[in-house]
Write a structure and sequence with these properties.
- The protein has 611 residues and is an alpha/beta fold.
- Helix content is 34%, strand content 22%.
- The chain has an eight-stranded parallel β-sheet.
- Helix 5 runs parallel beside helix 6, helix 8 packs antiparallel against helix 9 and helix 11 runs parallel beside helix 12.
């Protein structure tokens, strides 16, 4: 799945499940995680496909002061409970992302307790940042240490320490292997060591290739976190502020400026990756409490679901619930399941469900380039373009309908948000406190049917035969012919898509190992960031030699398709019989002689010319 296909529902687990404020107040294991199962059907109808769970491993209080990374907090349940929850989520088509708190720990974390007890003699004294045994802290430990944001109950880990890295890699491995999680939201990523972030990202993806790695960054350069820290996405706090203040101040110029700065198709700072977008979360006031005009709730979500990036809904906000931070507490932002009425008939829920359905249907909203169309104080329009299709997204925050004149507004459009066909002559009326999504009506009609039906038809249309793929490998072989190389071409296919293509390049690279098979295996491994190619098929125009068969065996390729038989050098079935090697996958498949005549003719022509 492409990460921009995700629609995320963010649960603050401790609050949603009704956990006690402090772990010490819970005297026995409470199996509260199962409350999550009660809303899965509700989330499916809403259009959610990914669930982000706030901290749920053993901690002293709110979850961000972890004491045991391997044990689900007893206020929530057990490890077995979490395994069952995630398994059920997967069965219903949800991905599950966990909140990873790796910047700091709680004071009851085993390594910190050892430092408290043994001080300078502790084997773990280097695990924590800037420990000073000549200092002190508010707990009178007789030493000081670096913490997060002045909170001495959150002890900062030394993420450059090799033992700490090994420990946290072990934690991630356990979370993937035991619970089968699909991603991490890295708490406080903007204050973490970039080298550590990159290492842990690479490790996670080596365990699970489509692992999602989101970083929380209240401020900072998101490009650095993505390109140097290996993150896939970063929390978009810049637009979080602009989304609501442009409505409260009746100033769409603010958010328009930000969108141009971040996403503009030519110069946007973050046009090359998808930001994690939200209108509220567990740390900020509910959007229904933040907006001056509650009638604008629908259009702020319409913008969230149509702007570039990954949209996230904070639990309960789809029901327009309110919540404001208290005096030193975030509890009002984190309500318990029993206090929420998950009503599928709620007007905002129904409208959001419609928006998400449109987003699923329109690839241009998920992958499209961004460009501004027009901007006024209370009206705003932008264009999302993907392949040969474009959508015009229009907003009006005024309490009155507003007519917009623009050269783009000519012809027949289908408004898939307002559900009406419009014949326009350079102008359109945008309803009060609402918006429009205008697309070509014929294009919209072609997308009729459920997402699953559409995808199924697309897959059927794109089903490619062995011969089709071999013809592409032959194109590579012909490139080699033109370059004076022995004309053998190869491609690697994964999920019916070509991920690597090349031809023999021994002469060009002055490398005896530069066979087509070797080159594509290396390329595929680099692209997938793993050496195991168990889900990949190799197509090559001639029977592989012993060296290439060795690479096929080592890379765990599941299917080999080749054209011409090589009676002198072939090592699959002609000479060395490596096609029966015991190290091959048990279900390894071999398809010889595909397009053999064409492959053989090209080789004959090459060597004939050489003579």
């Amino acid at each position: 799945m492409h990460f921009s296909d995700l629609t995320i529902y963010h649960l603050f687990t401790m609050g949603f499940c009704g956990a006690e404020t402090y772990n010490d107040d819970c005297k026995k294991i409470e199996h509260r995680l199962f409350k999550i199962l009660k809303i899965l059907g509700y989330l499916k109808k809403l259009g959610i496909n990914t669930i982000l769970l706030g901290p749920l491993f053993s901690s002293e209080s709110h979850g961000y002061d972890t004491t045991d990374y391997y044990l689900v907090d007893r206020r929530l349940g057990t490890n077995e409970d979490l395994m069952m929850i995630i398994e059920q989520c997967h069965k219903m088509g949800f991905r599950v992302v966990l909140d990873g708190v790796f910047n700091h720990t709680g004071r009851r974390f085993f390594a910190f307790k050892d430092v408290q007890e043994k001080r300078e003699k502790s084997s773990y004294k280097e695990w924590f940042k800037n420990i000073n045994f000549y200092g002190n802290n508010q707990y009178d430990d007789g030493f000081s240490y670096e913490n997060w944001a002045g909170c001495e109950n959150l002890v900062k880990l030394n993420l450059q320490n090799s033992e700490v890295k090994t420990y946290l890699n072990g934690v991630i491995a356990a979370w993937i292997d035991t619970f089968n999680i699909d991603g991490l939201r890295m708490d406080a990523a903007n204050v973490m060591d970039l080298g550590f972030l990159k290492e842990i990202s690479q490790f996670s993806k080596s365990k699970k290739k489509d692992f999602l790695f989101i970083g929380e960054a209240v401020q900072g350069d998101y490009n650095v976190l993505v390109h140097q820290g290996g993150l896939d996405s970063v929390t978009n706090y810049e637009d979080y502020k602009g989304l609501y203040s442009s409505l409260n101040d009746k100033n769409y110029f603010e958010i328009a400026y930000s969108f141009n700065r971040l996403f503009e198709k030519e110069k946007g700072l973050y046009k090359d990756f998808y930001t994690y977008n939200f209108v509220d979360n567990h740390d900020v006031n509910r959007i229904a409490s933040t907006l001056n005009n509650k009638n604008c709730l629908n259009i702020i979500y319409l913008m969230l679901l149509t702007m570039p990036g990954i949209p996230s809904i904070y639990y309960g906000s789809e029901l327009a619930i309110e919540g404001v931070k208290g005096d030193g507490t975030d509890v009002p932002l984190r309500p318990i399941y029993e206090d929420l009425n998950f009503d599928e008939k709620h007007p905002l829920y129904k409208d959001l469900s419609k928006m998400m359905s449109i987003r699923k249907k329109l690839a241009l909203l998920r992958y499209g380039q961004y460009s501004e169309m027009f901007v006024q104080s209370q009206q705003f329009g932008y264009i999302r373009t993907f392949e040969d299709q474009e959508g015009l997204i229009l907003f009006n925050s005024d309490e009155q309908d507003c007519a917009i004149v623009h050269e783009k507004l000519v012809g027949t459009f289908y408004d898939c948000y307002q559900n009406e066909t419009l014949n326009l002559h350079r102008s359109v009326v945008i309803p009060a406190c609402s918006g429009r999504i205008l697309v070509d009506p014929n294009f919209w009609e072609s997308l009729s049917g459920s997402e699953e039906e559409t995808l199924g038809k697309k897959e059927n249309r794109q089903k490619t035969t062995l011969q089709d793929f071999m013809k592409i490998a032959l194109i590579e072989a012909k490139k080699g012919f033109a370059e004076g190389e022995v004309p053998i071409g190869a491609i690697i296919v994964k999920d019916d898509k070509i991920i690597a293509a090349n031809h023999n390049r021994k002469e060009a690279l002055k490398d005896p190992t530069a066979h087509a098979e070797m080159l594509v295996i290396r390329e595929a491994a680099q692209k997938l960031q793993q050496w195991r190619l168990e889900e990949c098929d190799l197509y090559v125009t001639a029977e592989p030699c012993p060296m290439c068969m060795g690479a096929i065996i080592q890379s765990r390729i599941k299917k080999l398709v080749y054209g011409a038989t090589e009676k002198k050098f072939g090592a699959v079935e002609s000479t060395a019989f490596l096609g029966k090697h015991p190290m091959l996958l048990k279900n390894f498949e071999i398809y010889p002689g595909i397009c053999e005549e064409n492959c053989q003719e090209l080789l004959k022509q090459f060597f004939s010319n050489k003579r």
